[in-house]
What does this fold into?
Amino acid sequence: MLDTLIAGLLHGNVYALVAVGISLVFGVSNVVNFAHFSIFGLGSMLAWWFTVEFGWPFWVTIPAVLAITGALGFVINLTVVRPLARFLPIAALLATYAVSQILDNLSQFAFGPRVRPFPDILPTDDLQLGGLRIGTSDVAMFATTIVVMAVLGAYLKWGKSGRAIRATSQDPDAALQMGIPVGRIQHLSFIIASALGGLAGVFVALYTGTVSPTSGLTTGLTAFVAATLGGLGSMVGAVVGGFVLGVVEAFGIAWLGDGVRDIITFTILLLVLVIRPGGLFGRTPLISTEPLTGTFLGRGRPIRLRWWGIAIALVTGGVLVPLFADAYLLTVGTQVLVYAIIGAAFTVTTGQAGVIALGQAGPIALGAYASALLTTALGWPFWVALPAAGLIAAIIASVLSFPIWGVKGHYISIATLGIGIVIVALIRVAEPITRGAYGIYGIPAPSIGDLVLSAPLAYYLIDLAVLVVTLVIVRQLRRSHLGRVIASVGSDEIAALASGVRVRDYKALAFAISAFFAGVGGSLLAHQYTYIDPALFSIPMSLLVLTIVVLGGVNVPFGAVIGSLVLIGALEVLRVAPEIRVILYGLALILIVRFRPGGVWVRRA
Amino acid sequence: MSRIARRSLLGGAAALSIAALTALSGCSLSATTGPSPDASAGSTDPVYFGVSAPLTGNLAEYGRLWQQGFELALEKVNAEGGIDGRPVELVWEDSQSDPKQSTAVAQKFVADERIIAELGDFSSNASIAASPIYSAGGLVQFGFTNSNPDFTLKGDEYQWSTSLTQDFFQDWNAQIAKEYADTVAVVYQETDWGKGAFEYFKAAAEEIGLDIVYSSAFLPDSTDFRPILIQARDAQPEAFVHIGYGPDGALIANQLRDVGYDGPFFGGQNTPEFTEAAAEAAEGDIISGAFIADDPAPEVQEFVAAYKAKWPDEEPGDFNVYAYDALIVLVEAARHGGPTREGVLKGFQEVESFPSVQWGPFSFDQETRRPADPQLKEIILRDGRFVLND
It folds into this structure.
């Protein structure tokens, strides 16, 4: 009992230190910054490099890591976040995701993929606490956490530039009018947060004992939950949140085993967001946009497809590609089409209802599993299982996400991300039904009579047909009365509320519609892979769908087709250089977002 | 555009699609065996094998170890004149060992007529997902690290593997643990591989009277295992068993000592990721080995010498050997049956004895399409290196 508490506090200390930096960067600069996780991982790798390869002592390594990660934060803000945040915050989010991909892979490229032991630059097992051996390193980390929290908290409260950071985060325009150099202040907060990320990376490596180039995301995401638990923007909250999360996690894991760790962590996140949306120490976030200012998500107007445009698209997709493409291109084509289906449907949630939903992998997984189980266990034909999978995905996803629609601001993105992770984890745990981590093999191909449609061409044509149906339905929905009500929620939530629109319900409905098609897409994927397991439905899958939606234009269903073509087609084309393809992919993503921030398929306003 | 015009357009497109569908349905809507190019005798064009492997992502280290093993095997094979005087080359595709990418890679290889056989993928699920595509394309899928019995069991004549299966490994592991203890605590990876392995371990343990007093799964991306290790410690097992990979094995061994457990540790892998990071904590760890560097057998010493000449700062490990053996076996099969897709299959079915570093000469059990009657070596961790346990 006592030992578990101590173990929880030790791990909580890690979360606390990482969470302080995250709280600063998320709460103060108002950008969900995925690159921060990579900077934190890079901090570990750099510390390893300096101490092992160069033999630098501890007191030289730390400032070097701080300087490099701080400088990197500056470069990221200068080149990626700031130019994009002006257009569309979500574009900045995606760009930081691209940066994180680039950093992780550059790090892997430079240092090799190996997991390496991290040198004991401070003793890690020289003290005894209860039944546990701890180290001077743990004490030093705790002291660092407290000092960072106190100094940063005081700086933000009383320091001149610290107050300017807060003012900038609350209202950049007003801050600018008051004479605050907003640009420089934003740079400053990025530099501080990134340097802190690097510092945390060193201590986490010391705590874990090993380093690898891709270690940032899991710890980073959990620390992010800790920061949310404490209240984003609050330094004390981040530290308390870190320790609370560490202890609750430790007892949960001790009780239920580590196999359900992700469910424990993200259920805590969802409970906090629903019960106390501002976290333990933060203010309950008010609505993040001002009413009646026309907070249209995408800039510019969609390019309208004329009849000949539709004709060209249909002839190309429906006749030319099937006639001339080989099996490999058709397989890539099926992926493009399925993601286009899912992306087009999510324009309803993201564009019309204005909810930057993440966690798309949840409903996709529900659809895939529903279809796989209905066909393998119950022997249903594919053609019946396909729509059923959509319905099941819509119903289960709606029930599970029901409590979160009152969550405001960009907390809703975090909440939907949590829902997605929990759904997939529940599928993994429900082993008697879903076969859990073993996955389901032998998902049958669709068939008409005796003709088994197992070739890439058949899947391609089926997917194309479903895509056309999806686009027509989504388009009709946009033009209907219901569609316009949903759009009113997205354009101006307060005005919609004042007009008697039940905002929460319409957001939930929009999500259910999107989830239906995501489920259909999941079913198509399952029958093409013939094998599924929970690991397929990962966070990157959710981000891919969101990227496709944003790239095409959040309010343009057809844009999702273009987005899917660019992102999935591009990833395949970039196969020419396996080791750097993820890096090229990230670069391409940044360039597209940079020069067409409203989406590829829109005309500039 | 008017509604009617749009409707008729959609209708037209649907009709066109259906026309294309029916026109092509006779041959290409069902996956069928693709043609294989004739081997032109006397040609000096290279012979190509496809490799579907994790080159990026969190399993990329295994891809790197494969690359080393293949490189050594290629040098050996091509120095001997390749296959009928034609040099052997590899076509690499990165799958991240992810089933949705390994299936795309499979399509690519099947469509590429130069490729006469495929090596990989790393994880069983990535391989199994791609199996129907390789079988349909008439391409031998050589999943030489796929320890899940289902890979060959659920596959057909095109799925072959030199990997021993988990039931075999875990039976062996349980017996080793039983020699040192009557009660054990077990932790295993929450993946198809880890859970399957644990089930086999549990069955074997029950049979020989080894009592499992605590068990827990852990997620592959976990880094802090203290909460479950404290529970394991408090169950007072006489030994501790880890079923997982190298990196998590190293963390668990170290943290196990941090929570004050002193009993024997069995687990980890013979990879530098494990031996370097867990040298002290896992001292005395006994596992089964495919090979051991100080084995005097000539094929082992030839391999070790070649490896050390190229990478003097590294130690050869199991995954280098798996890859090295796999390529040599595949070349042997192609030499026998001829450098075509059918020829490779014929080679696997007909060659009586294949060379290997792991077991010396061996043959395939034609029923299971796995090595017949394999022997495991008992290896023990001493001073940060695995050596033969006498």
Notes: Chain A has 24 helices and eight strands. Residues 290-298 of chain A have pLDDT under 50 and may be disordered.
